[in-house]
## 1
Amino acid sequence: MSDKKEKKPRTIDISILLFPLCIIALLAVMIFVYPDRAAFIIGELHNFFVNRLGIFYIGMGIFVLSAAVAIACSKYGTIKLGNMEKPRYSGFKWGSMIFTATMAADILYWSLIEWGYYYGANPTLGDSLNALQRQQIASTYPFFHWGPIPWAFYILPAAAYAYMFYVKRGPRQTLSEACRPILKNRIDSGLGKVIDVVSVVGLLGGTATTFALATPLMTNAIKQLFGITAGNGLTIAVLLANGVIFTLAVLWGMKAIAALAVACVVIFGVLLSYVFFLGPTRFIIESGISGIGNMIQNFVGMATWTDPLRLTGDGVSGFPQQWTIFYWAYWIAWFVATPFFIAKISEGRTIRTMIGGAFFYGIAGTFTSFTVFGGYGLYQQVTGRVDAAQMLLNDAAPSEVILRLFDQLPGTNIVLVLLVMAMLAFYSSTFDAITLVVAGFCHKRLRTDEQPDKRLRAFWAGVFVILPIALIWSEGTLTMLQTVSIIAAFPLSIIMLFIIFSFIKQLKARERA
């Protein structure tokens, strides 16, 4: 890749630039004007895709993980991605960008609070749980939901894209181009447009979910730090600050993005160390080891559990429907951009080292986060200091629960400063990566060594900030658009299958050549 100024103008694909925005805008207007009717329709669709077709997502996860491992361990794993003698980025810098360019802001958020939902749930066949069982479930399921299967949704498509970039030297950087070996010339017609437009629409919905989850935590932390009371104005200021940081990084190119990723990891490491050494260190270590061990021991059962009798939850959907299937759909909704970025930074590696390294850095980062933050929060629960699970059951705001947990640490204000800095860095690092990728979608032709037009990068950076700002006045609209992103995961999963089978077909064709 090159950050040099473009020598010649490129043709912009207006349909990819405008259609997704028009669709999202139309959905937002319809939801705002007809909220009750929209809520009913979206609820029915959500029930159908998550509850009725949940087995599809379960099977999809098992297949993608199995295929990723099989390809990495096969003879195809030795194929080198590009002609560089050594990888473009060092292992640490490469791993930092992989971790921070994913749903890193969400990873930080969920590692602080996800265990609390599981502690208060009852994922068994109707049996009551004692405190030990609740602790085991709360410390085990986060590792499963952020472990090998969801990371495979990113890493296997990333390997396919990297092969398209650095071996086949494809003329475009889009999802439809990755489907060409299967769909052939149909990609150049309306079908290719549909694939790319649906992909960007799903991504826009997914980004709304990330902003919705993490922004309240940052704003409430700032309020507590400075003792202020502010509403939407502070939220807008936080979003704009994020926008400025990741827009500048995107415009400055890959060197700035790589530097921001490393800074993000450093800040994150300081926050982790603070909580680890000043918190219940022994409990954190032992809880993390136990949770990972339980996850490994019960992995097959957890990966295939569908709760067919629906004996848990609200009587409509059980634990795997509410959590596992939700997570698989959510990760799929993000596969549009994140794997592209992983592919872009993997030149010079083999398929095997790319897949293996991405699994290592991704899982190491998420497991460390959930071990330290999750273990700290779970300790406050089981020792009776903060009943976070009951607060969540009583519909307390998750950000309020997280701040209550941090109040138990010495030097709370120091923790909050580190938290805000880490979330700002994670936000910016994640969104500069997806902005760079989506800008590339909008070019009719874009070589692997070229960067998208800077005007497009700035345009999409603005979209990723303006969209959540426009939605913060309507919580119902935002929530339903998040549901739209989950519904969009179904067609996106079909596109993912096309990409995977296209990748396998190319590998086999290379062997026969």
## 2
Amino acid sequence: MAEELVVEELDQVVVRFSGDSGDGMQLAGNIFSTVSATVGNSISTFPDYPADIRAPQGSLTGVSGFQVHVGAGQVFTPGDLCDVLVAMNAAALKTQLKFAKPNATIIIDTDAFKAKDLEKAEFKTEDPLAELGVDADRVIACPLTQMVKDTLADSGMDAKSILKCRNMFALGLVCWLFSRDLEIAFNFLREKFAKKPGLAEANIKVIQAGYDYGHNTHSSAANVYRIETKTKVPGRYMDITGNKATAYGFIAAAEKAGLKLYLGSYPITPATDVLHELSKHKSLGVTTVQCEDEISGCASAVGASFAGALAITSTSGPGVCLKSEAMNLAVIMELPLVVLDVQRGGPATGLPTKSEQTDLLQVLFGRNGESPMPVLAATSPTDCFDAAYDACKIALEHMTPVVLLTDAYIANGSAAFKLPDLNTYPTINPPYVPEELKGTWTPYMRAENGTRYWAVPGREGFTHILGGLEKDNKTGAISTNPENHDLMTRLRLQKIDNIQVPDLEVLGDADDADLLIVGFGGTYGHLRAAMDELRAAGKKVALAHFKYINPLPKNAAAVLGKYKKVVVAEQNMGQLAAFLRMKVDGFTPYQFNQVKGQPFVVNELVEAFNEILNK
């Protein structure tokens, strides 16, 4: 009599795909997250790339991971530890086991655990499971490579191409474990490989084989699970990365403002995908130029802005260093420009594929002279769309360069994104110089809010020159007058201070919290999850998360001064805490700082915050 299959319903699950950097773990993870998002589950993903350009195959430093958290309700992080770990080789098992729960289900390819594989992974014995203390009953061990070869034996594909399909077998097995609809995965592959239908069908065949293996063997290491969606909000959804959402936000802002979009950029990890995405949309009035270096990328964007376009330049921390002079040119010329900084580990080349929040003080102060510039920080992959839109609106309406901070974690991570209705977004109204000022207008004549009027070249009667030398406030001519320079410096600062940003929102026990957690940018999900866990344990805790950093929300000082204990948690050595101490009199917070190139771990946050509460 056949064993009855048990189907267990879960609220959430975390799956981590890991293997050699050539094993396609990112693609397998992306497909699984897309399948989950399509059926209405909430998702949060974390691609964990190796920093090496191409480490030796099977080596410990060459392991690539992709973690996805799937929930029936809303999830805020990719999860601390995974419930299912896919380890495509011995090195993956050794390096990724630390990310698995003690009772996690582990899927391994026994064909990649031969003697030479164990040697590369620096195992000391012939039994890697026992050496690592893994319970063999929790392991689904299958000759994955051989089964893929058998599945595609009649495909006509060469051996190397067949081996590249191994990730799809693992994906199929995971889809069986969680009762996923394979048709969604099939459609994804047919679209991705539309120009290579034979390759798409080969991958589909392997996914089905992986699913059938789980179904036919009823693998004893795990039951089958189902994750139902608790709350479905009607609308069209897509699984979107932060970088793609950022690109779409820029396009939306340009359309709303009625402007052409220009991106001047130089490829740099982890910001390059924004350049790639925008380059696909020439039909929407987007012009992209891959420049010879970071300096020309920014300088060309300044030129495009002078010519009347919505101008963007994208980079990461090292590129901001190089762009700083051209950014300052936009400051003194008072031209709209958005500088996208997708933060990564530093200093220097540092950790190109890892995530940090270490550029904050650089974008606030890392230029010569008094050069105030608005700074925003996106809080999640989906928020990148709104943050990009907001950054463009501020730049265009206040005639200033704006820095938009994201980071590698939210830029490469993804979430389910409900396609927005652009009609619900606020209008964008650049301060074009009124026609009635023809004949009396000068380049630094200002509107009531202190913003310089914008005269786009080509308008008769508004010919003018801008440049990097200080100009006279009244005539626009070059001026070294001390009083004029002091005045212009104050006017540029006042213009930024006049920008209206939303008030700082306090979540949780806003009225009577014993501890206020403060953060900014991409750490929102982890800090929110830590707050929720503490409140569930009966603690009174609140969260104030900064998206707008310069200027600060008008109520920031009142919020920060309301609570007895405040902890600022950030992935640097205290840059936001230092800025807040500078801006808010008497502010003396606790600090939680990590610079590991990895997202926060919620359990570590909870432990640290409990210590502060107990002091």
## 3
Amino acid sequence: MAFEKKYVPLIVGVAIAAGVFIGGKLNFKDTSDRLFTSNSKKDKLNRLIDYIDYEYVDEVNTDSIVDVTVNGILDNLDPHSTYIPKSELERVTNNMKGDFIGLGVNFYTYMDTITVIRTIEGGPSEKAGIKAGDRILMADGDSIFGDKFTNNEIVNKLRGEKGSKVNLKIFRKGEDKLLDFKIRRDVVPLKSVDAAYMLTEDLGYIKINRFAESTYKEFKDALDKLQDEGATQLALDLRDNPGGFLEIAERIVDEFLEDNKLILFTKNKSGRIERSYATKRGDFEEGEVYIMINESSASASEIVAGALQDNDKGTIVGRRSYGKGLVQREMSLGDGSAVRLTVSRYYTPTGRSIQRPYDNGKNNDYYNDYYKRLRSGEFENAESIQVADSLRFETPKGKVVYGGGGIIPDIFVPLNTSHQNETLNYLKRREYISNFVFVELDKDRSVYEGVDAQDFIENFQVGDEIVVKFQDYVNLKERTNISFLAYYDQMKRMIKSELADQLFGSNVAEQIMNENDDMIEEVILLSEEAKQED
């Protein structure tokens, strides 16, 4: 089970806040120029900024004032209308586009030198022959090693226009001289499908980490592959998925629903309703599907779960989802920055909105809803989930569902608190595990030459001495005295999963972390029961 980032306070407070505002793209009848006509409110802000520019006693960066002003305005709206400054827009856009222009390497600075952790599958560096463990010393004749370079500066050296070339000098262990590589920059994919493999002989598994522009194609390729391997049932893992593009969620839902089934509808400020229906192209309309969600599944993840639940298709497994039923559209502000503004609400096929209340806008209560749920016992007992009878709906087959704050699963799986150790999740976030594994692996990569991925999954064991070594590594880094004695099994699995990720990729890493996963085991049980009923 590739590590499911279950350090939920951070996820809810940061990752979700950064991710769930991407609800989709809708079309306006008016262009931005027509929407932003001259008016007294606009003139008032312009005059104030001009006064500060020309009359204020001290020099002031009015760009920063504008940023503060924009954020202040948005803070009085809903929690998911968000300002993206110029410095962040390219990164955010690339993340949701699903690719970027570059060389295609994951790296970190090891002893002041840029060291390749892995090459990205299908990227230019992999094609050119760059290997994990390579040290990049120079780019186009300029040195890029030493403590004077930041990661951002290095990234800027390595990235460039599509089709442009960069000359690299590489140090590789075992070679008696530096290696020269000329690499042509190209599109580098950012995977949104972490894993796709068979859980049983007929139950496939797909994990999606976000809904980017490339996600549907990745999903469809994975689904086709699993069907070729015999999958007649599917476990779709949307846990900790903060969402993304609405239309991508619709296309994925379309794979499971029959022609003309309602997927969702949206309603904007003027009351205009737009409905989205399934088409004839679905390839998994007959198969049984299980959607796994948790408290950090949001936005597009909830669209998928809600559409299938309301159409009595498949089974929703897990815990109540995040509760975001708003749709955003990205609008340029003309200076390289943008705003993602909420333009409509979406409703599931039965007519329910699953948006959580936000009467006080972007306050701490909204983002700290996780703690409220935790205190109420909701993560441990389904009966603790609070519902409102006024928001009660029924599916075509008479199943009762509720609106007002997330998707409530059909089958509840409590939070496994043994997997919620704060210390282990902290170490994962700080990339201590990744860096430690790289250093150990880099000592002698020949040990793993010819090792088969399946053999690694089934037979490779992480010894106690490695856990002790990692413990010493962390204590040296943190200048503390952490002990993993009570968490040896978890620590071994996390180390083995990270090693698999660096050797074989995320698909193998996920399989290792998914061993003994409570929710997956519940899905397998439901799958077996469904086969017996057939």
## 4
Amino acid sequence: MLKIFEFMKPYTGMLLCAVALLLVEAICALVLPGYMADIVNDGVIPGNIPFIWRTGARMIGITLLSVAAAVSMGYFSAKTSTGVANDLREAVFKKVLSFSNAEVNQFATSSLITRTTNDISQIQSTMMMAIRLFIYAPIIGVGGIIRALDRSVSMTWIIAIATIAMVGIMGILYVVALPKFKIVQTLIDRLNLVSRENLSGILIVRAFSTQRFEKKRFDKANKDLAETNLFVDQVFAFMTPVIMLIMNLTTAVIVWVGARQASAFRIDIGDIFAFLQYGMLIIFAFLMVSFMFTLLPRAAVSAQRIREVLETESSIQYRDNILPLPADFKGMVEFKNVSFRYPDAMEGDENVLNNISFTAKPGETTAIIGSTGSGKTSIFKLLLRFYDVTDGAVLLDNIDIRDIDKEELHDKIGYIPQKALLFTGTIRSNLLYADKTASDERIRTAADIAQATEFIENMPDGYDSNVAQGGSNLSGGQRQRLSIARALVKNAPIYLFDDSFSALDVKTDANLRAALKQKTALSTKIIIAQRISSIMDADQIVVIDNGRTVGIGTHSNLMKTCEVYQEIAASQLTDEELMNA
């Protein structure tokens, strides 16, 4: 929780105002029973009507002051809790953006979503209640005891017994329920994960007719969460009637003992009323504290989960001596004896990449090919510095990328991922994602190169046509072409194509590559491909097999010297194409 308190510092002024108003409200609540006792003792019994009117008017004024303080306090506490929650969400979101893939995988996407939404909402609601209950309840409790002692010392044993009973019950309930709160948040993560997988993979679920299986999986996650929540609710549902029983018994005992003492002329009747109200205030204070016990454990678990995110450092650490890229940056990429092993790999697992070495030069196209799982995409992840190399170095213009500022590094690279992901908005907003300052002419040029102009202009609103979440209202080929156009808007010196032509037909693929070759003639282009036919004209082809470089050269050279490349070619090309190769 201490980490969360740091976010309250900017709202110290509002918090102090809320505390001051709570103090006013508490004092008003403690003063009123005394006036009630005076009305009974000095007004009702002797029949002093003017005194009743005067005292009643004071009580009305104090009540109005209490209401005004309560309303103002609610405003300040809401502003404080909402502000802290807003700052927490922003801090968690920024922290997650700084994570490498290793940290994202460590927490899991579903858990990060739960921590950013549900956990912070839990802290917000608890904080709003805590500002009132943690300050108001102690003042009412302690003040009520002092005022009750002032009215009758002989009956304080009743309140003492009631207080001890309530503390004991709350302690037992706290011990029973606390472990369950930790389980609840984990189960919410699980439910989030199952829901997210089903919604994102609904086409696969339907295609394989696994609706029943997925329903059972969801029902289990949902039932586990419901049963755990039900247990916690039942525990605290038991607390309310027990506390009400204690309150009613306390009332009855105070009235009975007070009546006996009044008949013996040891206490005034008005003091009995006052003592009864103070007793209720004291019990009410403990009732508020008990209510906090239902919120605090879960909020503490949520705070711990948020703290884990905020205190987790990215495995990608930038060196102190950051080097600026030269003004005449050309974009030469060199992998120098690079080996890589994922941070979460089990002990004894082999490296994903071993001693990878090649150079991609400006103005040339370097293609990377290999079987599925050979480590091709890992090369791009290292170049983009989503992970750090285990051994060796990745160089840009002979500068180690670990010595380059990450924003400057990514500014020099236009990346087209394997899965074409678009954002909710318009076609224009998605293309401007690469460069907010790009002119309409640059956008149209990028769309022309990506062979996307025709389908964009055929849409009702052209470049202002809506794009649904993930681009779900577009075909796979359209999403892929927009993804390519988005990277081209950047005018970067380095372009990375991660199997980015797989959804294109042969004609569109050929036209796109021809336009790319002409418009990006000075840039370094690195292409990961599955089809040999799409990289045959590359200036350099790097063949990867089981994380190792087994061949580097042109298509014709590799057909003569690389057995792995020959096997790939034999599985993809016709006999005639093999003869001409």
